[in-house]
Write a structure and sequence with these properties.
The structure is a single chain. The chain is mainly α. It has 2 domains: about 70 residues, no CATH class; about 40 residues, no CATH class. Helix content is about 70%, strand content about 5%. The protein has 7 helices and 2 strands; from the N terminus they run αααααααββ. Strands 1-2 form a two-stranded antiparallel ribbon. Strand 1 and strand 2 form a beta hairpin. Helix 5 runs antiparallel to helix 6. The radius of gyration is 27 Å and the shape is rod-shaped.
């Protein structure tokens, strides 16, 4: 990614500081995701400050950065979402733990959805089995006790 160069040294320092904060915020992600986010933010800054004169650079840059917001706050949901996608692709315990940590607020929702998906799969298997083997599949009651009847062929 090519960084923007400003003629005003103060504007350059502000820009570099903002990008360092962004890099720190997204450092947990895969390099491809980091590059994508950095390029997107750099593009927004470039569009906002394009064609600015040296005396207006600082004002336009600060305006653009205020509209983008603090990277620690703005990028947190994006980083958490990308980490979940990475964890689902890699199935590495480290990525899964990081994704769960970043999604503490969404963690309960993920647990609920995983239980729902598990029930969908189990019921999706039990329904055809019950239709094919009605007397050999399911949970039954005998002598006021529940028991599980194993499928025997």
């Amino acid at each position: 990614m090519k960084r923007i160069t400003f003629t005003n040294t103060s504007a350059q320092k502000i820009y570099d500081d903002y990008l360092k904060r962004v890099e720190r915020t997204i450092s947990i992600l895969a390099p491809a995701d980091q590059l994508e986010i950095m390029m997107e933010i750099n593009s927004h800054i470039y569009e906002a400050t394009r064609g600015a004169q040296a005396q207006n650079e600082i004002e336009l840059l600060i305006d653009a950065l205020e509209k983008l917001g603090a990277p620690e706050e703005v990028l947190q949901p994006l980083v958490a979402n990308k980490k979940v996608l990475q964890a689902t692709r890699s199935f590495k315990p480290r990525h899964i733990i990081q994704a769960l940590y970043l999604n503490v607020n969404n963690g309960i929702g993920f647990i609920v959805f995983s239980i729902i998906y598990l029930l969908i799969v189990v019921l999706g298997l039990l329904i055809p089995l019950k239709l094919i083997f009605p007397d050999r599949t399911g949970l039954f009651i005998r002598n006021d006790h529940f028991f599980w009847l194993r499928v025997r062929y």
